[in-house]
Amino acid sequence: MRFEEAYSGNVFIKSHPNLEESQVVIYGMPMDWTVSFRPGSRFGPAKIREVSLGLEEYSPYMDRELEEVKFYDAGDIPLPFGNPQKSIDMIENYVDNILEAGKFPLGLGGEHLVSWPIFKALHKKYDDFAIIHIDAHADLRVEYEGEPLSHSTPIRKACELIGPENVYSFGIRSGMKEEFQYAKESGMYMAKFDVAEPLKEVLPELSGRNVYVTIDIDVLDPAHAPGTGTAEAGGISSKELLEAIMLIAKSEVNVIGADLVEVAPIYDHSEQTPIAASKFIREMLLGWVK
Questions:
Q1: Which 3 state secondary structure label does DSSP give 246?
Q2: Which residues contact 31 (CB under 8 A, 6 or more apart)?
């Protein structure tokens, strides 16, 4: 499947009508087939687009307007309900096509397993890249209740694919003891609880490198983002995540793509979670796409 064939419904505010002229492809991955607690993140991409219409087009954080970045919202990939392996294969093929066209992939999840096929696609294009992972959960399990395809496994898979020394996790406050032990012994970087301050220390180390950024909305405290499948108390604020996005934007890293996952709007009738997510997407577009 080529990426322009994805179903298009609502689009993110100021989406450019012409794919060929666009620098960025926004695409949705409506999958929650492997979640371990509450389903519903498959509805995240559509809701993020819907509430984006309430955004200002100007960002005072980046001092840029959305019209300055040409991005094409291709809609959601039509993933087969309940079939993780086929869904993963479709996402990988889809991102292959985005990268082949020289576009910046910006994905909307969906559960966090959707990042795994993106990592695989990037690995085929780039000889060397690092991952910045911002999340409440370590996601370093080998399997969950005997199932290796789980939203609790993508970062462990990433470590095995590109080497743990190229994986940097921030905001982590939940996981099995064995996951934290693996992080300590493997050589990967893990910052527990906080995001912005450890990012300030790490970004100079990543200067000049290709970096992919994956953000799980549950890194936010449930007070700021109740609409997620596996909420964890003790998280950061929306302001702190915006600071982290700005730090990456102002650094010397070369962001080669990004995703934002695990928005489950059914658990947030106030819509504050997708509203926050849409603002983060705006800042990612304006700060990370040069």
A1: helix
A2: 41, 42, 79, 84, 87, 109, 110, 111, 113, 114
The string of pLDDT tens digits covering residues 40-80 is: 999 999 999 999 999 999 999 999 999 999 999 999 999 99
Q: In this structure, is the dihedral angle defined by the CA atoms of residues 63, 250, 121 and 100, taken in order, positive or negative?
A: positive
CATH number at residue 222: 3.40.800.10
d(CA 216, CA 256): 18
Peptide bond between residue 28 and the one before it cis (omega within 30 degrees of 0): no
Domain tally, the chain: 1
Give just the sign of the alpha carbon dihedral 177, 188, 215, 257. negative
Query: Which domain covers residue 79, as residue numbers?
Result: 3-288
CA separation (Å) from 155 to 94, 182, 239? 20, 11, 25
pLDDT digits (tens, 9 = 90+) for 170-198: 999 999 999 999 999 999 999 999 999 99
> In the beta sheet, which residues pair with residue 104?
24
